[in-house]
Amino acid sequence: MVALPGVDPSWPAYRDVPSHAAVDPAGTTNSWHYLDNEAQLTGPPRGTLLCVHGNPTWSYLWRSVLAAGAQHGWRVIAVDQLNMGLSERTGRFRRLADRVQDLNDFVGSMDLTGPVITVGHDWGGVVSLGFAHQRRDLVDAVVLTNTAIHQDPNRAIPAPLRLALHPLVHRWGTKDTSAFLDVTHALARPALPKEVRKAFLLPYRGGARRQGIADFVADIPASPSHPSYPALRNIAEGIRTLDVPALMLWGPEDPIFSDTYLNDLAARLPQADIHRFEGASHLVGEDRDIAGPLFRWLDGALKTSAATSSPGSPDGDATAPGAPAASALETDTTAPFTPLEHELTQRAQGPDADQLAVADMGADGRIGRSLSWRDLEREVSSLADALRRIGLRRGSRVSLMVPPGVELTVLLYACLRIGAVIIVADAGLGRKGLSKAVRGTVPEFLIGIDLALTAAKLFSWPGRRISVATLPAAKRRLLGVESSLAELRLGKTTAASGDTGPADVPNPAVLDPAVLDPDVLDPDADAAILFTSGSTGPAKGVVYTHRRLAAMRDTVAETFDIRPGDGLVAGFAPFALLGPALGTTSITPDMDVTRPKTLSASALADAVAAIEATTVFASPAALRNILTTQGELTDAGRKALAGVSLLLSAGAPVPSRLLTELLGILPAASLHTPYGMTEALPVTDVDLGVILSAEADAAAGNVIGAGNGVCVGRAVAGARITVSPLNRAGTADGAPTTEAGVTGEILIDAPHVKDRYHRLWLTESESSRTGGWHRTGDIGHFDGNGRLWVEGRLPHLVTPAAGVLTPVGVEQALEAVDAVGLAAVVGVGPAGTQAVVAVVETTPATAKPGLAPASLASAARSAARSAGAELSAVLVVPALPTDIRHNAKIDRTAVAQWATGVLAGGKISKL
């Protein structure tokens, strides 16, 4: 065999194997080609991986797994299926059942030792699962990359496969030409190197060598009448009882095996760990490193299986020496549990039932839609019943694309009452981010406003579509909407055709009582998937159970002394939804909650006055706009704001000078800036007094570790914090500590920390590798008084030759310079020798981005030097890119790329 890139010369092998496949005459022996790394092992193998390719690839697909297997002590055998790759062309059409038997024959001829793990891709996934189903005596675990095991007979197979099966295309595309091969190879992200593409084409040069490709396509069970459909169905149903560890490594950009098929597999193998590699496509093993995660998973999965622990929970690295005590994230399932909606129900049944519970402010400064506690309870119960009638059940996923306010509040609590899993991803993710979030969670229902439903139609988002408002018949048909919330409340459903009629009401006698009875809600079942802002990489779905959501409610109530009956103005989406759970009267101000900087001072004052609110929650961007627009406040507005006793702001650091200025319009308020994240909110609490004291300590230099970052205070009740020190390369690998002045990655532990990341096994494994503690990706340190200071994010560390530099402290120093609004400090060049570059947003905004004027550059260098950094360059821009959710988190990755281009002498583009 010719030398191929990535293939060790010792791997290729041939074997004659007696066949028991029905398609072969008795006594037939077939010649198999396969790759085997056994010769590279230095001792007995830890076990054997049996890798099965699909169509139109071959064993070459698994070369990275073979190489890594040798390093980890695993024997890896990658077969070429008969009529494919370099194996024999038998001249006989082989169906799915034949291919499963073929694999059984091959394995029977081998002397396999240790645990046996099947690994499959594409139709090799089906074949490998068929083998695992039959050989339960031999198979210890299964690994799948993009594949499918079931085709819904009511849905068409993917368009590329329909085209390949078309009579006018099939022979020409699969056998007579290399079109099917070329299209498959073109799915790689990034594109395959020329020599790798040539290697994939090697066994399929000439029509005769491609007959197996044509046959494989023809054997796709596209409908129940297909000859291979019974075999596929047998495998699909059989694996439901395949009780072995499972791993799925997926490319979500695959136009063939989409997340719909992943969702189906996850339902059949609920114990499976899943990792979706964002941006990867059909050839996920070419697009990403799957070998590293695979062997890391094997280390934990087989150990867990041997210990008879429950599969499916991510296993990380062993706890580092000196690590803190085991995390409280190991849920105490015996602890008392009060559902999130408990206070809502209690208030509706108490003496305050007719008092205001939730309200929206109108543009005219008056209360718009509002509900009392009694009405809120009635609407939640009514909608929950209506949603059950159309099929919403415990565990159903529901994407809620409705702006925060009364309607979303009712929807959210109705879904929680049923036990459905709510999916919340805001518009700040943008079209691509939102599409990835929806497709990745595969909701069964999508409930949204017109704009969201239009996007769902344009981008083919999954889920039965329910509109908030009742739409005209033509628009309903166009958007594929089956009903509206109003129609559901009236006991009607609306077909996409526009016809109306009574809802399809299941017979209650045949329903599982647990589905209907909210009292049997499982505290440790999934309750919500909340997406991060995406400001530091692809947005991640954060899974909360009912127990952890309730713990968040309890932590917020205890930390900020929020009590039933308080009035809350929620200018920040999460707290717009927590209000009823806290028993507060909650009002959403006149603003676009997904764009925090749209909250004006007068709109805030109107909302406060409407309910005599004592508490306000607003993002840092909202606070800036409140200060900017304070001139529009009337005397009545100022009087209303003077009654606010608590201001909370989170999402990004809030400068002390901004908080001090806010005292001018909120004179009686205690100003708090809790630190937290989507994965845990809040983690710490700090008020203006503590911040000023900490800054004074930093200026005086009389407290170890004070300064260089943002002081975020101390851990909230029930939470613990530690840091894992950085090494000189900027990696957080040190033993966790609370020693003052030691900078490292912040680790947290609390009952309200997320349960896990959704279908991101590798990410979850990394984040929980230290004894189960959540590694935040934030960098910080403690000072001598036990206060935590945040210095930035791990991905934003700058690594000049002088040592690791964290950005936030330097940025704060720069923002104190006249004419500087926001600042970003980034590294340009190779890690370890990076140039430290400041990119500043000027006030007033500069008309021309590029190098800073000499006077500003000099002032910036002096300020940075005071914070311990030597700047190589200072650049100016009209505005720095920030995330939409907070309007405050700077996209330092984009800034670094832009600065690199500018300093390389290229054309200065808009940032």
CATH-assigned fold name of the largest domain: Rossmann fold
> Any idea what the CATH architecture of the largest domain is?
3-Layer(aba) Sandwich
Separation of termini?
51 Å
CA-based gyration radius: 30 Å
Shape field: globular
Major sheet summary line: 8 strands, mixed
Summarize it.
With 911 residues, the chain is α/β, with parallel strands linked by helices. The protein has four domains: 12-306, Rossmann fold; 342-546, Rossmann fold; 709-796, Luciferase, Domain 3 (Luciferase, domain 3, Roll); 807-903, 2-Layer Sandwich (GMP Synthetase, Chain A, domain 3), CATH 3.30.300.
Please supply descriptive tags for the structure shown above.
31 helices, eight-stranded mixed β-sheet, alpha/beta, Luciferase, domain 3, Rossmann fold, 911 residues
Give an account of the 3D structure:
The chain is an alpha/beta fold and 911 residues long. It folds into 4 domains: 12-306, 3-Layer(aba) Sandwich (Rossmann fold), CATH 3.40.50.1820; 342-546, Rossmann fold (3-Layer(aba) Sandwich), CATH 3.40.50; 709-796, Luciferase, domain 3; 807-903, 2-Layer Sandwich (GMP Synthetase, Chain A, domain 3). 33% of the residues lie in helices and 20% in strands. The protein has 31 helices and 36 strands. The chain has an 8-stranded mixed beta sheet with strand order 1-2-4-3-5-6-7-8, sandwiched between helices. The protein has an 8-stranded mixed beta sheet with strand order 15-14-13-11-12-18-19-30, with helices on both faces. The longest helix has 17 residues, at 373-389. It is globular, with a radius of gyration of 30 Å.
